[in-house]
Design goal:
Layout (H helix, E strand, L loop, with lengths): L2 H13 L5 H12 L2 H13 L1 H28 L6 H44 L5 H16 L4 H28 L19 H14 L6 H5 L8 H27 L13 H34 L14
């Protein structure tokens, strides 16, 4: 490596290690507390209030513990930049391939889910389903545009806007669904699972709850950019409490207000006017949140292609 490349490597290290634990918390919250808060009330309608609360809170604790273990692994093996590298550590080359496929599939399917929700949001706001394919393309382009900045420190700045968007959209959903009921709660909700629940429905519903907590696979990528890695415990504790509280309280409250007719995403249950308002407010959730998953996936591919080159820092012409 020549002198010019040494300078570029030093610049790259400074640029990509500016993430503090507070910004890491915002990145984690934005990346994880997104579609789950809009889809879990429908899971309560399938499983019932009791099982819904227990599973949502329970999986939240499991996700927090898993995140803690992954963080300890990252501290012990700081030279491993991606979750995929843990597969190589466990099972060699085969593990690396299995984890790579699973990791990329999770990122791509998550982005696809947000792209679909973006299409629904644009269709609801414009009150038109004619341009469904065009709305999907527009959503994909916006997701890509927000993913262009390769530094998580830069993305975290957008995260503050996104976090406010999450809270406001959830608030609108709860208020709107509450206003539409004549009594304090709907008479249509149940403590127990619906009578005709099938195994496949239960499996898919529980999988949706698990999917809502699937943030830990991106955590090593974030921790690789934090300037004080041992501070990750502050971030995941804040995330765990915030995410579990939002998911459980929001889902239980909206399900109690709406009952079995709750839709997914929940904003569709708020009525035409409130749905348009809520989706307008929720646009940052839909697009900024998942742009982080796009960045994680692209950084992984780019890092693998140029892992022995200064190009990996993305601060050269070729990068």
């Amino acid at each position: 490596m020549g002198n010019h490349e040494h300078i570029k490597a030093a610049e790259g290290d400074r640029h990509f290690h500016r993430l503090g634990w507070k910004r890491l918390t915002i990145v984690l919250i934005v990346q994880s507390v997104a579609l789950g808060s809009l889809s879990l009330p429908s899971a309560f309608a399938t499983l019932g209030m009791v099982a819904g609360v227990i599973l949502t809170a329970g999986f939240g604790m499991i996700a927090l513990y898993s995140s803690y273990i992954i963080g300890l692994m990252k501290l012990k093996y700081p030279h491993l930049p991606y979750y995929v590298n843990f597969g190589h550590l466990l099972m060699g080359g085969i593990g690396d391939k299995i984890f790579s496929v699973a990791f990329m599939a999770l990122m791509i399917l998550t982005v696809g889910s947000h792209c679909l929700t973006g299409k629904l949001a644009l269709a609801t706001i414009t009150q038109s389903n004619i341009y469904a394919i065009l709305f999907s393309v527009v959503s994909a382009v916006i997701l890509f545009a927000f993913a262009v900045p390769p530094s998580f420190a830069k993305i975290s700045i957008l995260g503050y806007i996104d976090f406010v968007s999450i809270i406001v959209a959830i608030g609108i959903s709860i208020i709107a669904t509450g206003i539409q009921n004549t009594g304090p709660v709907s008479l249509d909700w149940s403590s127990w699972a619906k009578d005709d629940l099938t195994l496949s429905e239960a499996f898919i519903t529980i999988s949706n709850i698990v999917f809502a907590y699937s943030f830990a696979s991106a955590q090593p990528s974030f921790m690789d950019k934090i300037h004080t890695p041992k501070d990750f415990t502050k971030s995941i504790l804040t995330l765990g409490v915030t995410q579990t509280t939002i998911y459980t309280i929001t889902s239980a409250t909206i399900y109690a207000f709406i009952g079995q007719d709750v839709q997914s995403p929940t904003l569709l249950s708020a009525g035409p006017l409130f749905a348009k308002i809520a989706f307008s407010v929720a646009l940052p959730i839909i697009f900024i949140s998942d742009s982080i998953n796009t960045t994680v996936a692209c950084r992984f591919i780019h890092g693998r292609m140029y892992q022995q080159s200064v190009v990996r820092y993305v601060n050269t012409t070729k990068g």
